Amino acid sequence: MLTFQAIKSQLRKKLLHLLTFGGVGLVAGLVHAVIGIALVRLQILEPFFANIVAFSVAFWVSYFGHYRFTFKSSNSQKMASVRFFITAMLGLLLNQACIYVFVYLVGISYELSLVITFMLVSINTYLVSKYWVF
Fold first, then answer.
1. Mean pLDDT on 12-38
2. Angle between the N-to-C axes of helices 4-41 and 110-128, in degrees from 0 to 180, rounded to the nearest 10
């Protein structure tokens, strides 16, 4: 039977894990947003293509942050990176679909579309990363 201290310790570990995931995701999301918004605002790329470039840079921030800090993986870098790449590509497809729908079909600003999309994609990324990648 679990004691109150054991339950408290487990909850603290899970909360720290989620906060770490959120922190790494926040940094990667900021990298993504700054690059994407800059490319759009400077009229270098349309939102759809700016999003691909920004996502590609943020991928590496996310991968190394989650490998090292969030999941503290003991899996090989090769296996984890391939699985994370697959996960990220699925995330990119979902991300691009959301951006397309929100910006081009619904008419929401790119900035607000990013916020909504980040929330939707983050849930998927966490679950797949936790149970398959790392």
1. 94
2. 140
